[in-house]
Structures are given as C-alpha cells and as structure tokens.
Design a protein that fits this description.
The structure holds two protein chains of two kinds. Chain A is of the alpha/beta class. Chain A has a domain of 156 residues: D-Amino Acid Oxidase, Chain A, domain 2, CATH 3.30.9.10. Chain A contains eleven helices and 18 strands. In chain A, the strands form three sheets. In chain A, strands 1, 2, 8, 9, 10, 11, 17 and 18 form an eight-stranded mixed beta sheet that branches. An eight-stranded mixed beta sheet of chain A has the order 5-6-4-13-14-15-12-16. Chain A is globular, with a radius of gyration of 21 Å. By secondary structure, chain B is mostly beta strands. In chain B, a hairpin with a 4-residue loop joins strand 1 and strand 2. The mean pLDDT of chain B is 89. The chains are: A alpha/beta, B mainly beta.
Chain lengths: 423, 111
Amino acid sequence: MAVQPAKKQRFNALALFRNALSYHQNWEQQWRSPAPLDAYDVIIVGGGGHGLATAYYLAKEHGITNIAVLEKGWIGGGNTGRNTTIVRSNYLWDESAAMYEHAMKLWEGLTQELNYNVMFSQRGVLNLAHNMTDVRDTQRRVNANRLNGIDSIYLDAKGVKKVVPGIDLRGGGRYPVLGASYQPRGGTARHDAVAWGYARKCDEMGVHIIQNCKVTGFDIEGGVVKGVQTTKGRIGAKKVGLVPAGHSSVLASMAGFRLPVESHPLQALVSEPIKPTIHNVVMSNAVHAYISQSDKGELVIGAGVDQYISYGQRGSQHLAEETLVAICELFPQYKRMKMLRQWGGIVDVCPDASPILTSTPVGNMYLNCGWGTGGFKATPGSGHAFAAHIAKGEPTALTAPFALSRFETGFLIDEHGAAAVAH
Amino acid sequence: MLLIRCPYCEQERPEVEFSFAHQAHKPRPEEAGEPLDDHAWARWVYYQKNIKGVAHERWNHAGGCRKFFNVVRDTVTSEIIATYRSGETPPVEESRVEGEALSFDYEQAEG
C-alpha cells in the first residue's frame, strides 16, 4: 500500500461562506489517522511543531513523502501546546542568530504557505534591562544582532515607556527599567495552529500522522538503525529523526547513547481575560518574567524553570509567585487580577542553552532536541534545517554548529544571556 | 516546593534553602581509571544520566549549613525517598539508564 496524498479544500472566505450554509457541520477532516505501514523511508519520532515541520519540509523541499510521524499522545499536546507563543530572533551568537532568523523569515510567510492562519502577530518584543550590567549586555546583543541583519533596536527608559505605556519604569523600586532591546518583527503566533497547519499539509502530501503511538525501542543492526518498536508494532525505517522535546534522554537511552541535557519543568499561567492593555511582548530575563496578551484578552505569563530534574509536567508554586511579584512591580495595574490557569511542560536544557541538531552514534539516526526553554520560536527554521540534514545525511551550514561534538571540541554556543529563562 | 531533610542539620527545610547540584556519584575520569581525553572530560562535565524515575542527586544546603549531600528522588513524582551524607552508600538503587556517552568518529559522522 503506497502513501496516498489527498488534496485539501482551501481555506478562504468562499469556503467559510459555503460551510456556514451547512452550519459548519461539513468541514473536512484536517488529517487522517492511518494504520502504520510495515516500513517508511523516514520515521520522525515526535509529533510536535518541530517534528511535523521536519516532515513537512522533507516532503516539500526534498521530495520524500514516504514518511511517518509517530506521536505518543496527540498532535500538539506536548510543549507545542504549552509554551507562551513568543517568536523572536535577537540571539547573541552568529550560529543562533542564523538559526532563529531563518525561522523568523519562514514565520513571516507561514500562514500563506500552509494556507492555515497561524495568527502570527509581529507586535514587537522587548527584553528589559534593570541594571548597568543588563544595559551593557543588552547593547552588546543589539549590536551583534544588527551585524547579523536582525532588526534589533536599543531603547532607553523613555523609549520603553513610549512603546509600553502601561509599564512603571520605577519597577516598584525593585526592578527599575533602564532600557530594553526591542525587536519590532518579533511577536506571537497561535501555537496549536502551527502544529495543526503543518499536520494538515503533511497529510495532504501523503505523510502518515500516527497518534497514540509510543516508541518503545529501536532495531539497530551493526550500528545502523533499521526500524522502530512501538506500541503499534514494529515499523521499519531507512532513516529515523528523533524530535522528542521533553524526553530526549529517554529516547537516546533506548538507542544506546546518552546526552548532555537535563529535563526541567517550565511553567506558564494565564489571567482572566481583559480588554487590550499590552500591545507587545515584554520580557525580563533578570526577574524571570515575561508577559503578553492573547487575542482572547488573557495575559499570558511565563515563569522560570524549576532547579531540579523532573519529568512531571508541573512547576512549583513559589516560582509562579516570584514571577507574579515582578509582573506586579512592573505593571501595578495588574495587581488585583486573578490567574485562571497554570500549567507546566518539560524542557530539555543543554549546558550552553543552545539546541542539539546532530547525527548520532547510530547510523541513519538523527536527533533534534535540547531547545530548552525556547523552542517554539524556532519551529519552522528547526524543521527546515533538520529536514535538510536528514535528507542529505550530513550537517548543513545551519545545523553543523549545533552538533553533539561541540561538547568535546569546546565550541559551545553560550546563549544563557539571550536565552536565559525568559523566552 | 519540596521539603528536603538535610542529613547534616537533621531538619526538614523548604527547597528555597537548597541548590540542586546535579547527578550524584559521578567519578572524575581519573578516578574511574580512564585516560583524561576530550571525550572523557566532556562526559564528566556535560553528560547527564537525566533519569526518568528514581535518581541519585547532589544538593547543597546553600541557605543553611552550606554542605553538599545526596538525595534519592523520584523525578516523575518528585517524592524524596531518602537523603544521606556525602560519601555514604545510597540506601536505595536508582533507575537503570541504558547506554553510555558513546564516542564516535565525529569527523566521519559530521563531514
């Protein structure tokens, strides 16, 4: 049985009108749920944004459509559906700037490309500086960004107030705002829609999306991967791409190697919905707080990571509390608001806060993990670069610096400054 | 917030007094009788077991006695199974992790 492509209806105003006549009961299925075949050219393990994007670009750019995406839960149910949806590319080092700016350029055309509204809103992202060290670091990063062609601007305190009128520059005395980096092209996107949009396009091109299919082991013969053991049986594969987000160590352990990552809980919370009050994304790395407002009106707030390793998808209360304290100092008008929901996800953090995109000690097995606290913004770029890596079987200019070998050669890409906790 | 019993202070104290200090019982390459090359060093400095299940961890009572000690903790439920002093034998086995930080020919694998 071959993998069958299936042309999808186009989403447009006419389709909306036509479906309104039947009370929106007849919209076609976004993607099918086929039973797995015996073997595929490429198996992608992990059906989050990065995994689906990898499958999509493999099909679109490299003509490989005999692909299965295996997801242990449901599409977009992991970190893709748990992040705070922030997109920016103002990273310090050339290697990360290249990767995240590559993603940013893809974000800018993603809605049209996927024919799926990912609600990409370039509302501008600010990273606040609270002391002179922050100011100097921020200016250095802004200058590095500009050399890499990224639209980064340094704002002084007055400039911040102009862009974010609601902010209290005194920060309650505890977190005075001295300046900020500002990336006008940064913003937010609807995280679920990104996964759904990629899944729908993948299905259209004949990629099999297999949900509720957990990988339990790998068939490795002579140091080369030949297939994947799953809860739905054995599936053969010529190449395997691992895109596991919070369980990379667990998958690597099944394949017989270890990784320099640690899994930590990262949490976020949203408030009750209110009228529009904040029109951009305000992040403060120093106080582990970042805030934006969703189109529903909820304030979306990201908190810090727990210090210890955990695979339980929940964060500690005291971290959320510290974040809210800082938010209330910076935005006193939010002091009496109620928080509606809080949740956590597991982020795999590398020692240098940069991801791993690499070939592995196992032949024909490739790994994309370790995005830490900020993988969402890279989704299209990560998928695009990783697809090229898998198709060619060797690193590309974009992925080569992120190889596992950097931990032995010492060419680390230290992004704790730009990445930190606030993404 | 976790409540952690410091084996030196012999008191249960809130987590904010402690710093997580990563994997316990991790011998330096020369202690493990390995040649001290880039691979061995990278493995000691950067590679982690990152166990899903029962793990041996080092913690520092930074806001108290400032001593390092070990904790046996379940990384899924965060239940603290035991704490013990540095140098003591772990009272509970940790979950098994397959594999090693394999050395492979990076030049060949990565062009």
